[in-house]
Amino acid sequence: IGPRKVLSIAIDNTFLGPIWAQPMRQGADIVVYSLTKYAGGHSDLVAGGVLGKKEHINTIRLMRNTIGTICDPHTAWMLLRSLETLELRMSRAGENALKVCNFLKDHPKVERVGYLGFLEEQGDARQADIYRRHCIGAGSTFSLYLKGGEKESFAFLDNLKIAKLAVSLGGTETLASHPAGMTHLSVPQERKDALGITDSLVRISIGVEDADDLIADFGEALKAV
């Protein structure tokens, strides 16, 4: 056994953003974000960000300046614009997601909804405990498992009118995608099986549209399944 080393903990907090989880309060040393998602929030920029303790950030800042991974002025301006409405957008999206998930979980054509707010009622006590201790909210991105397979998933996606077919998240618009046939198409089947990425899985990121309109959109799309 070698000498004891102090390890740093880095957390990717993109999916819950700065509103629904704050890992540094739980002791994380570094927190990283895809600023393209909630921080940008309008699907019109590409950027990343790092937060952390001064001893880590100083090193990261030096490396960033050396290799040139710095936002261009226009992207930086758009981020500043978006941060003014970050809390408003995320709060609305979170409220919408809860309403939509409550509708979907009881639908006869839905096998299961993978939403953080449902962990306890779904009987996952361990994960529910972690969620309660570390998260402020359940977010607006969730997994929808339909009854059936690829055919049913594609029928659902093809019949959405408000939600857009895209793989991002955290924007003002609601997005839906089929991970097995899109983001994870080239992943070996055994790995997809281990991760729960089945042909019946649809990933949904809820936006800031009217919740009743979204529920109606999903309801109509499910009629085609």
Topology:
Layout: E1 10-12, H1 17-20, E2 30-34, E3 48-52, H2 54-67, H3 73-83, H4 86-105, E4 110-114, H5 125-134, E5 141-146, H6 150-158, E6 164-165, E7 175-177, H7 189-195, E8 201-205, H8 211-223
Parallel strand pairs: 1-2, 6-7
Antiparallel strand pairs: 2-3, 4-5, 5-8, 7-8
Helix pairs in contact: 4-8, 6-8
Largest sheet: 5 strands, mixed
- Total DSSP E strands: 8
Strand content: 15-25%
Rg estimate, integer Å: 19 Å
Q: What's the shape?
A: globular
- Elements, N to C (H/E): EHEEHHHEHEHEEHEH
CATH overall fold name of the largest domain = Aspartate Aminotransferase, domain 1
| Fourth-tier CATH superfamily name of the largest domain | Aspartate Aminotransferase, domain 1
The CATH architecture of the largest domain would be Alpha-Beta Complex
| Terminal CA distance | 57 Å
Structural class based on helices, strands and sheet pairing: alpha/beta
